[in-house]
Automatic annotation (TrEMBL):
Family named by the database record: Belongs to the Homer family.
Keyword tags: Coiled coil, Cytoplasm, Synapse
Single biological process term from Gene Ontology: G protein-coupled glutamate receptor signaling pathway
Organism: Cyprinus carpio carpio
Matching InterPro entries: Homer, Homer_EVH1, PH-like_dom_sf, WH1/EVH1_dom
Source domain of life: Eukaryota
Domain WH1: 4-116
Entry-linked Gene3D superfamilies: 1.20.5.1700, Pleckstrin-homology domain (PH domain)/Phosphotyrosine-binding domain (PTB)
Subcellular location: Cytoplasm; Postsynaptic density
Record protein name field: WH1 domain-containing protein
Major localization listed first in the record, in broad terms: cytoplasm
PROSITE patterns the record matches: WH1
Coiled coil: 206-316
Pfam families: WH1 (PF00568)
Amino acid sequence: MFPLHREREQPIFSTRAHVFQIDPATKRNWIPASKHAVTVSFFYDANRHAYRIISVGGTKAIINSTISHNMTFTKTSQKFGQWADSRANTVYGLGFATEQQLHQFAERFKEVREAARLAREKSQDKIELNTAALSIAAPQFSQDLCDELQSPPVMCVNGPEDKLFRSQSADITLSSEKERIKKMLSEGSICEMNLESELFTLQDSNAKLVAALHEANANVEQWKKQLAAYQDETERLRDQVADLEVHGSQGPSDMLKDELTQSLEELENLLKAKDEELEMRNVDLERRVQNAEQNLASALEDRERAENEVQRVVQILDVKIFDLNDLRQSLVKLISK
């Protein structure tokens, strides 16, 4: 059946990505749907005026999602995005190789969703026009229908048939509310999962920053000890040179003086080089600390945004659960009459 659909559909955009689906049991973890990157394509069905996202792994369709006007594609990281399909009762995730590929897919998703919305509006306008034409072309049918409605009803208004009809209508409404709440719970679980991922990234960044600071502190202490040793040696040689200048005489003492002077110059050059190296290391350490602080601030902002999103979903769920309980109470009262 699937190849027949492909024959009457035309691809309008294709890319490659790793495909995932949300775990139906936990609604929290991702399950890989492909072992490697596969082709993911947007198709347009001219017969049904519908847009679909299709991906095939081997001989099996791992994505077959019809795009509706109320779908949303969400970027959850630099190279990962997801969308919920209520018809398939799942959430699809795509991992791309580059940020550009993710951006292109997201933009195309918006375009296709807008096209689906326009097609839906045109379809509704066409149905309204057909309804108006039927009402004009069949006045006698309308008159007969009015006469029939004005005739005495066969069923008792308060009878069991009326209760059954209203009960079935309420059951349909209750089922629809349950599906909406399941979808919102799934989105809340995804937000919570993204929050956990952000927290893990934040903890990893903090651990790397602490390790870098410990290493830098150890190096600084070692350099300070070396510099102190060089300074002591320099002072000792200076004292020797000064003693030779005061008490020294001609001959071998001049040679010793020259050797000490040369050693002193070498130590001073070495001390200068170490000072420059220490300064460069300090600059590099400050740069690494600044980068770590920026990453930490960014991670904290992402965490706060995720927490706010989870709180918003929880508040919406509270309202929906209250409405659902109210609907159930109304249904009980309705059935008991």
